[in-house]
TrEMBL record:
It comes from Kribbella pratensis. This is DNA helicase IV. One of its GO terms (molecular function) is helicase activity. ATP binds at residues 201-208. Keywords: ATP-binding, Helicase, Hydrolase, Nucleotide-binding. Pfam families: AAA_19 (PF13245). It comes from the Bacteria. Residues 180-515 form the UvrD-like helicase ATP-binding domain.
Amino acid sequence: MRDLDEERAYADRCREALRRMVAGARENVVVGEDTWGDRYTAERLGFYLKTLARDMGEEGDNPPFFGLIAYGDSDPAAGEHRRQTYYLGRRHISDAIGRPPMVIDWRAPVSATFYQASAVEPRGIDTRRRFGWSGNRLTSFEDEHLQTGLGDGSGDSGSELVRREIERARVGPMRDIVATIQPEQDTLVRTSLDVSVCIQGAPGTGKTAVGLHRAAYLLYAHRSRLERNGVLVLGPNRAFLHYISAVLPTLGEVDVEQTTIEQLLDREVRAVDDPVAAAIKHDVRMAEILRRAVYGRIGRPAQAVVVRDESYKWRVNQHEFAEMVIEAEADATTYLTGRERVIARLVAAVQRQAEARGQNCNGVWLRRMARAVTPYVEEVWPVLKADEVLAEYLSDPGQVGLLTADEQRAIAWSRPRKAKSARWTAADAVLLDEVSALLERSPTYGHVIVDEAQDLSPMQCRAIARRSEHTSITVLGDLAQGTTAWAADDWATQLSHLGKPAAEIVALSTGYRVPATVVELANRLLDALAVVVPPTTSFRSDGELTITRVDDLAAACVEHIRGALSVEGSIGVIAADHQLPAVSDALKAAGIETSAADGDGRVAVVPASLAKGLEYDHVIALEPAEIVASETRGLNRLYVVLTRAVSRLDILHSRELPPELRT
Ligand SMILES: Nc1ncnc2c1ncn2[C@@H]1O[C@H](COP(=O)(O)OP(=O)(O)OP(=O)(O)O)[C@@H](O)[C@H]1O
């Protein structure tokens, strides 16, 4: 095995080889621009090579590898890898075609052994080495001798380097975890593309990290299949997306669409529903209501179809026409394909008559006939637009039924409106998506990863299900962190709304973010949250928790921030939404520079409603009782807030603490 100097020299050689790869890719771009004949191929290949050159160039001086595995001679489990040593990095590096790679991509099949091997099951490995870097300088390494169970670390997950990485102070956006993925996480990351999984994970167990690494893994293992339809990552809000935005690009994946369900639905939202109306619109009954609103437009023919064709007149009698409509309605996959089918069948009936008379029914003739029968079809099966259907429904919900009279009143517009003058709400956007899909099929993604999935309404789940109808999904969430009025109580129901009732549900309960003292406090809320989830066990023994009663919240907050600024790490001040403006003003008056939840400043001021999915090295949580009192699921919100802290949580309160937090 190499010593530290030799490893440094190897790292230099790897960087040199990477530079040659970048230069080669750039040259290919230049050469390729002149030589490819077919324009489409040239563009695709050119785009690919440019992206490769850019990514590899941007990688610059990053550590070329983070670990190695050295297979032994004696363990039969080594198989074809006997006596081989593999370096693992964020990307594959090779110095010449035909020669073994200098660094293997962390996603390659052999790399799984790095994450999965243990002293109990060494999988043929003699030594697992983890490298410590300070910036781009190799500073140390740590060996585990898996056949003998000896090592520099104190055992399997007790590796010092792993512990240091997990416990490091957090600054800036989320980072990748390729060097320290834990075995249970690796299994989930590498789950086959055909399998949908649902990860119920306590706070900080790495659900988001697993989801993002899974996206990168799937793109590596199934590049051509996924490139066509793409991978979609859905997160709860923009602050969260900002926080995670750097992870996939660092892993070399720049083409994954990362968005929120609201952005995905792409409707301008100009009004807000009251909570009662929103809850009704998000209820799964709306699916059947909208189906009826759409299919209820199909009528029965009141006359025969008569088409003039030069000196002929073709006729499909009323009864025959009605049969066509009834059959197409029964089989329609979407409203508009059903309509097309009626037109096609009418044209076929006319064609049969024309051919019997020796007519030449070419393409032009068929199109002319289709135009001629369309007005008849329009009368019984009109073309519809999603916004017109919904505007008509919300102008008079009584026309469809299924809701109680009170419910109908709650969602009805105060006066009938046309689609053009409608001011849609966020819930309407979901309903419009449902109607659009009833009318016409929407395209699907190659794989969809849904984070914070416990918060989705049944109707939002259906919007996601449509976009992953023929593919698998990865569902990430925590029932205890459900804060919406429609949050899921159990995964089985949520998965059936997501169209994947058979998805396997896997629980993660080892928390990597929140220190044990804070976890112990947050776990006390679980009983009151009325969901069945395993409590978190913290991987971390470090960390601090203080709970202080104060007279002046803002003044105490300023004082705590001043203390926190003297050590490294991000600081998040989290309070009930309505209390935040006053806190922000007080901090400004005290000369403390702050940023919003999606900013990159040292001190972020975060409304409790936006804290989900985020983390700060040092969290100052203000007035827990107010966070609980501010909303129906206030206790769940408090659970989210308390579990954002990485190194330290300070709770400041001027009122009584909620009973669950009292000792
Ligand atoms: N194997 C690991 N090695 C290093 N850090 C890790 C590992 N797993 C998770 N982490 C870190 O722990 C923190 C929490 O991870 P993540 O945000 O993915 O958890 P989560 O389960 O989505 O949490 P929440 O439900 O609270 O949003 C992140 O900083 C992440 O990088």
